[in-house]
Amino acid sequence: MAILGEHKGAVEHPRRVAVIGAGYVGIPTALLLSHFGHQVVLAERDDYRRTTMQDGRSPIIEEDLEELLRSVLETQRLRIIGDAAEAVVNAEFVFLCVNTPMGIDGHADLSFIDAACAQIKDHLMPGAVVINKSTVPVGTTIRVAAAIGRSDVAVVSNPEFLREGTAVRDSFGPDRTVVGGDDQEVAATVGGLFALTGAPLVVTDAATAELIKYAANTFLTTKLSFINAMSQLCDALGANAVDLVRGIGHDPRIGFSFLNPGPGWGGPCLPKDSHALVAIAETVGEQIPLISAAIETNHRQQRHIVQRVRELAGGSLEGARIAVLGLTFKANTGDRRDSPALVITKLLREAGAEIAAYDPTVPVDATDDDVQGLNLCASVLDAARDARVLLILTEWNEFRELDFDVLGGVMEQRTVFDGRNILDLDIARSADFVAWGIGRS
Ligand SMILES: NC(=O)c1ccc[n+]([C@@H]2O[C@H](COP(=O)([O-])OP(=O)(O)OC[C@H]3O[C@@H](n4cnc5c(N)ncnc54)[C@H](O)[C@@H]3O)[C@@H](O)[C@H]2O)c1
User: Fold this and answer.
1) Co-location of 230 and 168 in the same domain
2) Of 32, 97, 103, 337, which one has the fewest beta carbons inside 10 Å?
3) Which domain holds residue 266?
């Protein structure tokens, strides 16, 4: 990993840091800071995640993470323990990286934040700074400060923008660092911990920092929902969504990023954060119809795909075996939280289809609740056997070059729906497949 060589142990004044929560955000944060030369204690209460990391293995699928973990463990600058209270005892900086799932009525569930505050408040050293990296509603910095209840401890907001699948790369090379707090000097000091990344630092008040995270994520949902709506229109008009993207993306005001139509946005952040922003607006009597429309468009896109698969299946899904390729919310992660693939398979099953699913990260004997009722397969070929439609829902590289002659030989009929627009449909058609994609048929 080239990035490791660039920064190794480079910090002049090592600080003592605690990170609470070893997840997709907490692990890269802890590894980055210890890699830069800081002394880091990472607290994780989940036994599997903690012991796996202590053994030098990554508990989550993330490119370069295990290599970075091993190199950091060798430096002895990272300690991994279970108890958050113990982790903060000598820490000058304490990062809260705990989960904030969707709660009632779309509001973020802050129970893990509250619990972590209760755990650490009596153990923080005077002068410590608590930094909220979790995605939280506006006002949470004040809530955390009240929960900690210590005038000798500062609290700031430092939203995280990394993407799963490229979490290490994004942590070492972020587009920007945002820190918000009442005391701008403290905020700037926290920003300084990330100075070696070279990213521009945006220092602001806490409310703005908290809102920035939601604004960034919901902007992306509106962009994705826009292009998904255009793809639906392409289907209705017989136009081609891939060419449409090429035709508008070259305009630098639009750009190509986040402009590929697909099975709807999902994952652990975009759905919960868009609902949370709608809920945040409601608390101050505001409405943001644009975001509500983006959410509704997302549901429509998933229903639209089910309808397209129904058409390919011959008009009914009742008893049809559908081979679903990909269950994670995107490629290069094992994360299935709010995965569009799972939403679509659920809709297909409700319509009477039988699902044979293959995903490189899901073992055939997986028993997790979200894959109950799916016939899990060990390969694309196994999933395709006797299937009426082959349906790609995650853009794993291995699905980009399928052998349609072989697949056609085992399927009930030769039909494929490319829900990620990763295929050259002409290749499938040359093997006598009826092949459709998102906004192209
Ligand atoms: N996943 C992403 O891509 C991403 C990106 C940016 C921001 N975020 C935000 O960052 C936050 C964390 O997300 P995540 O995906 O890393 O979550 P995660 O569920 O993967 O990890 C959170 C971890 O915190 C641990 N934890 C909770 N309370 C604890 C406590 N008191 N002591 C010790 N460990 C505790 C949990 O066991 C869990 O392992 C969320 O607010 C999320 O919205 C996530």
Assistant:
1) no
2) 103
3) 223-437
Rounded-to-integer distance, Cα 277 and Cα 279, Å: 5
> Which residue type does 375 have?
N
pLDDT digits (tens, 9 = 90+) for 401-412: 999 999 999 999
Hey, how many other C-beta atoms are within 10 angstroms of the C-beta on 136? 23
- Tell me how far the alpha carbon of residue 133 lies from the centroid of ligand 1, in angstroms: 9
Distance CA 297, CA 310 (A): 20
Which amino acid residue places its CA nearest to atom 1 of ligand 1? 24
Would you say the CB of residue 135 lies under 6 angstroms from ligand 1? yes
Looking at the fold, whether 142 and 280 belong to one and the same domain comes out as: no
Q: Is 234 a catalytic residue?
A: no
Using one digit for the tens of pLDDT, what is the confidence trace for 251-303?
999 999 999 999 999 999 999 999 999 999 999 999 999 999 999 999 999 99
Residue 213 lies inside a defined structural domain of this protein? no
Protein residue with least CA distance to atom 26, ligand 1: 21
pLDDT per position as a tens digit, 377-422: 999 999 999 999 999 999 999 999 999 999 999 999 999 999 999 9
pTM of the model: 0.93
Q: Which residue has a Cα nearest atom 37 of ligand 1?
A: 46
Among candidates 326, 366, 353, which has minimal Cα distance to 342? 326
How many angstroms does the Cα of residue 268 sit away from the middle of ligand 1? 10
Ligand 1 centroid to Cα of residue 274, in Å, is 18
Residue 361's closest CA among 317, 318, 412, 396? 396
CA distance 298 to 225: 6
